[in-house]
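TASK: fixed-backbone design
INPUT:
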């Protein structure tokens, strides 16, 4: 089912300011959005803001005389493909749970037959109150889907669970509903982030990989219907829902984790920036300063993606090549030398894109084929790459 019409409900609370950004992102993604606000919500952000962003008048009154049958709540409920309430206050959640309908928002909840998504926002003490949790459990049993909340500092000065999920995260959840399940039934293993190769108890060798590309691939693969296993080096990124994750440190740790999982996988995407070398000896004590120069004795790590590609019953194997020069030459050499099915190459060290950036561009190679993806955000790029992988898999299965 393709969901294009979203009814956005906004209840009273300081988190209502996030709803403006949420609306902007939804419109940017091509959704047709109509907005409903409680009277309390209009005290935080004016309806005019949401009218300007959506292009439609904002609904605040239960009985709308502009409607021919004066039943605007019924017409709106029938119009929507999905009802998203963000933020949802503790008061609104209590109304929904007990079937109260004394304003437009709560009446729409009762009248809606489409999927309902709620993004709660409230003080951490209110969130943890037993009656609030009972209301949430009651709504969950009735098929309501909850997005968040998240933990962090709150406007009241408290810190804890109760912050409304960030607009980007809410849009991702809705996008997952819309995404064609082109990877349904596939098991995908993805590696992400850097590795850390210990020198002594306080120092290690690593690189500038943020893990953002690998995590974007895991998120989009989940949305496209795959069962995802993510093996991640040390990163500072949020955990992805409904993804099996192994956190590792060294190249040896990552190799062992991959080999434990690989036998059941249909696809492997090696997006991690794995160290090529590791110290030959781990010093048990901190290395002291010794003169103007020193030497480190390093040895090769096991090439994880090449090891997978050598397996007799291997998955469809995709490597990554991050290069500072001769991108095409090095990428195609790795494709052949490591016996990969596909390699995705990108520049690093440029003005934008690559390591520690939200943007990237890729040039993808496979036997007798190649395709370029222009600079874009990594989530969009991940979806483009996964779509290409699905196309190649289908092409190979029919030849």
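OUTPUT:
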């Amino acid at each position: 089912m393709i969901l294009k019409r979203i009814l956005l409900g906004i209840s009273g609370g300081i988190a209502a300011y996030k709803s403006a950004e949420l609306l902007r992102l939804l419109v940017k993604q091509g959704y047709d959005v109509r907005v409903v606000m409680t009277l309390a919500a209009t005290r935080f952000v004016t309806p005019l803001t949401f009218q300007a962003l959506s292009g439609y008048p904002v609904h605040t009154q239960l009985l709308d005389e502009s409607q021919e049958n004066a039943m605007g709540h019924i017409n709106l409920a029938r119009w929507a493909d999905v009802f998203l309430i963000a933020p949802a206050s503790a008061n609104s959640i209590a109304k929904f749970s007990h079937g109260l309908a004394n304003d437009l928002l709560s009446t729409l909840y009762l009248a809606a037959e489409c999927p309902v998504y709620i993004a709660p926002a409230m003080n951490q003490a209110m969130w943890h109150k037993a009656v609030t949790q009972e209301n949430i459990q009651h709504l969950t049993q009735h098929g309501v889907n909850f997005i968040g909340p998240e933990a962090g500092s709150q406007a009241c000065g408290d810190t804890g669970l109760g912050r409304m999920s960030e607009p980007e995260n809410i849009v991702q959840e809705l996008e997952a509903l819309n995404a064609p399940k082109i990877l349904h039934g596939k098991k995908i293993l993805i590696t992400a982030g850097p590795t850390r190769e210990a020198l002594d108890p306080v120092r290690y060798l690593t690189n500038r990989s943020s893990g953002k590309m690998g995590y974007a691939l895991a998120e989009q693969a989940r949305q496209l219907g795959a069962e995802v296993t993510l093996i991640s080096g040390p990163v500072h990124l949020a955990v992805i829902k409904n993804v099996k994750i192994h956190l590792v440190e060294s190249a040896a740790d990552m190799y062992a984790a991959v080999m434990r999982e690989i036998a059941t996988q249909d696809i492997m995407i090696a997006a991690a920036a794995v160290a090529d070398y590791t110290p030959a000896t781990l010093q048990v004590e901190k290395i002291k300063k010794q003169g103007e120069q020193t030497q480190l004795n390093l040895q090769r790590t096991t090439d994880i993606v090449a090891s997978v590609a050598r397996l007799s019953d291997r998955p469809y194997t995709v490597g990554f090549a991050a290069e500072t020069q001769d991108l095409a030459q090095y990428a195609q050499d790795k494709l052949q030398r490591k016996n990969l099915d596909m390699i995705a190459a990108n520049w690093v060290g440029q003005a934008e894109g690559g390591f520690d950036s939200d943007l990237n561009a890729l040039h993808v190679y496979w036997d007798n084929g190649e395709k370029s993806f222009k600079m874009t955000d990594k989530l969009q790029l991940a979806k483009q790459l996964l779509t290409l992988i699905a196309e190649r898999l289908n092409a190979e299965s029919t030849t």
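COMMENT: The first strand starts at residue 5 and ends at 10.
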